[in-house]
Amino acid sequence: xxxxxxxxxxxxxxxxxxxxxxxxxxxxxxxxxxxxxxxxxxxxxxxxxxxxxxxxxxxxxxxxxxxxxxxxxxxxxxxxxxxxxxxxxxxxxxxxxxxxxxxxxxxxxxxxxxxxxxxxxxxxxxxxxxxxxxxxxxxxxxxxxxxxxxxxxxxxxxxxxxxxxxxxxxxxxxxxxxxxxxxxxxxxxxxxxxxxxxxxxxxxxxxxxxxxxxxxxxxxxxxxxxxxxxxxxxxxxxxxxxxxxxxxxxxxxxxxxxxxxxxxxxxxxxxxxx
Length: 274
Ligand SMILES: C[S@@+](CC[C@H](N)C(=O)[O-])C[C@H]1O[C@@H](n2cnc3c(N)ncnc32)[C@H](O)[C@@H]1O
Description:
Elements: H1 6-20, H2 29-42, H3 48-57, H4 59-69, H5 80-95, E1 102-106, H6 112-123, E2 131-136, H7 139-147, E3 149-151, H8 155-165, E4 175-178, E5 181-184, E6 192-196, E7 208-213, H9 222-234, E8 236-244, E9 259-263, E10 268-271
Helix pairs in contact: 1-3, 3-4, 5-8
Bound molecules: S-adenosylmethionine.
S-adenosylmethionine binds next to loops.
C-alpha cells in the first residue's frame, strides 16, 4: 500500500465538498486514509492526484467512489445481547405510554439491521403498527437494502445471531433460497421507508421513539460526532432512545447531559432533556 499524505487527503475532501456537496473533512483520518489507499489499489490509480482528477471529471465514478469510501460491513442481529435488551426492556417501556412505535435506522447499510428489527417487531406482534425509516448516505447500498437479497453464505452467521437473540421461529422461514442467495420476505419491509440521507449535511426530518445509529460515528472525528449527535438528539422524542455501536460513546460529546445511560454495555441512552 502506498504512503498517503494528509495534505492529499485534505485536497480530496475539499474537491468532493466543492463539487458534490458531501463533506468528508471530519471523517476520522486513519480509517479514511485506509479506504483511500484501498481505492487507489482497486482502481489502479498512481496517486491521490489522479483519483481527484477522475472524481472531478466523472460524476458516475464519484458514485462508485462514495460506495467504496464508506464501510458497509454489517450483519443481522449484530450484537445479539443488544437485540434482547431492545425486545425485553426498551420496546416494552415505550409501549407503556405509546400504542405505536417509530424507529429511524441512520446508516442502515445494506439493510440487515432493518430486517432484524422487522423480524423482532413481527415476533412481538407490532410490526404492522410500527413506523420505520431507514437511511444511508450511499445510494447503491440503499438499493441493496430495499432488495433484501444476501449471499446465502452470510445466513449462517445471521442465523447464529438470531438463535442467540432467542427468536420464536425458525430463522429460515424469513427468506427463500435461490441460486446461492437469500431473498428476504418482502412483507417484512412493506412499511419501511428506505431513503438516501446524509447525516453530515442532511436536515433533521422527523422525530422518533428510537434512533439506531450503530457503527457509523466510529468513522467520524470528535467534532463531527458532536454535530451529528446534536441532530440525532433533535430527532428523538423526549424520553425516547438512542442506540449506538458497542465501540462508540456519548460521554465526550456536548449533548451527553441530555441523555441518561440505560444500558452501558449495549450503548443504549434515553433522552431526558430537550
Ligand atoms: C458499518 S455500517 C453500519 C451498518 C449498521 N448500522 C450496523 O451497525 O451494522 C456504516 C454505514 O454508515 C453509512 N454512513 C457513513 N457516513 C454516513 C453519513 N454521513 N450519513 C449517513 N450514513 C453514513 C455508510 O454508508 C455505511 O453504510
